[in-house]
Amino acid sequence: MRAHFFRLIEGLRASYWFVPSLMAFFAIVLGALMVWLDAGPATGLLDGLGWYQKAKPDGAHQVLSTIAGSMITVAGVVFSITIVAIAYAASQYGPRILTNFMSDRGNQVTLGTFIATFVYCLVVLRTIRGGGDGEFVPQMAVAVGLVLAICSIAVLIYFIHHVPNSIHINNVVARIGKQLLRSVDDRFPAQVGDPIDEAEQASEELSAGERALQDGTGAKAVCAHCNGYLQAVEDEALMDIACDKDLVLRLHHIPGDYLFDGEMIVSAWPAERVDEATGGSLRRSYSVGNNRTPTQDILFLVDELVEISARALSSGVNDPYTAITCLDWLGAAVAQLGRRRMPSPRRVDPQGTVRVIAVPDSYAGFIDRGFGRMRPYVARDVTAALHMLDTLAQVAARCRLSDRRQLLAAQAESLLTLAEEELHGPSLERLQERYRQTAHSFIATDQIAEKAGTLGARARR
After folding, report:
1. Distance in angstroms (rounded) separating the CA atoms of residues 254 and 358
2. Which of 22, 109, 198, 457 is buried most deeply by CB count within 10 Å?
3. Phi, psi at 127, each rounded to 5°
4. What is the pLDDT of residues 263-321, one digit of tens each?
């Protein structure tokens, strides 16, 4: 059930109606409460304040009417400005960025503040009576309405600053980059059961269940019942089901994958222990929706950085410095990941029995998803290409494992090879010289030395 709860929470976070509706509801409760206090327990509470002048029915009615009318007008303006900002961000940075802007709590609270003030004033207005013995003016409620109006003005000032600040490209990229860094911290190592020791994993023979799942014999396939993107996997639920039913599960997809109706998502062994109820429980551990979300899909954040840099390096925009900003944040994430141990795909229960075999994480796949997909766009611009070589060299200098440094060296070499097809003359010579300067940062291999030694011959050809 938590997978479906996660999907609901993600939908509410990215909606513009939930927070304003919640604030409007509390405004109704606050208005009714203040009127009740004025009519009963707190009657005459403000009479002892010499500096406070009691409002007459006509004056209170006019003040609250003015506040309510202005608040609903400003709310419409705020909504219009927000839509314009979202449209601008989608056209400039890509439609995937809409997820970040829709989840912006500042915009939601701003809209909710004006709507809540409007609703509060309406609730209090209907209780004001004038003339005769039935005159009633909720003095405390009117005073709270004035306070809400002042708070709304403060929120409007904040909103005027927040909108241009939120669509500034450096801030957009920084939000994505910081979320990517947090995701690396949260995901590595993974939290499905306990990780099996790598040395033991290398020496241990596969269990009967693992061999059966590897061969595809005697396993039960659990298939998706809808089309959509895999948004989240309830890992603890999968482990609990595997332990309760004495199963070994093999997962075939990670968050971010698109699932087709009827596509296999889990293989379970032995097949005879997987009844219809168990299959339904396994299926409910997967949350499927219409779009990708960054909560468990770390590659979605990488794709956002790639998309922004690709648009920035297009011929119509030609903004290499935005691409450089994306390279910096991507490099920070790759460097942080380079110091982490990739978790084993084999996850064990407290007794040490392998219960879940996840899709393995790959450092090579991560850097190829980022630097590899940026490469065709970066190779056409000498400024971005020079910075990408520097970034790869800085990341390699922070990697302790030689195989990962070799992967980064291969990315640098691939960039140079592609740039030799795109660039010519002094621009290409600068890039070749920068490659010679940074080659030692990756790893002192014969291949890199040979590559650096043949650059001059390539340039002459």
Report:
1. 8
2. 109
3. -95, -10
4. 999 999 888 888 899 999 999 889 888 888 888 889 999 999 999 999 999 988 889 99
In the chain, domain spans: 2-167, 205-289, 298-460
Token reading at 36 = 């009740």
Q: Which residue has the tokens 């705020």?
A: 78
Q: 137: alpha, beta or left, given left = phi > 0 and alpha = psi -120 to 50?
A: beta
Question: What value does the mean pLDDT take over residues 361-376?
Answer: 93
**Tokens 């039913």 found at:** 245
pTM of the model: 0.82
- Would you say residue 202 has pLDDT above 80? no
Q: 3-class secondary structure for the chain?
A: CHHHHHHHHHHHHCCCCHHHHHHHHHHHHHHHHHHHHHHCCCCCHHHHCCCCCCCCHHHHHHHHHHHHHHHHHHHHHHHHHHHHHHHHHHHHHCHHHHHHHHCCHHHHHHHHHHHHHHHHHHHHHCCCECCHHHCECCHHHHHHHHHHHHHHHHHHHHHHHHHHHHCCHHHHHHHHHHHHHHHHHHHCCCCCCEECCHHHHHHCCCCHHHHHHHHCCCCEEEECCCCEEEEEECHHHHHHHHHHCCCEEEECCCCCCEECCCCEEEEEECHHHCCHHHHHHHHHCEEEECCCCCCCCHHHHHHHHHHHHHHHCCCCCCCHHHHHHHHHHHHHHHHHHHCCCCCCCEEECCCCCEEEECCCCCHHHHHHHHHHHHHHHHCCCHHHHHHHHHHHHHHHHCCCCHHHHHHHHHHHHHHHHHHHHHCCHHHHHHHHHHHHHHHHHHCCCHHHHHHHHCHHHHHHC
For the record, the structure tokens of 205 come out as 């023979």
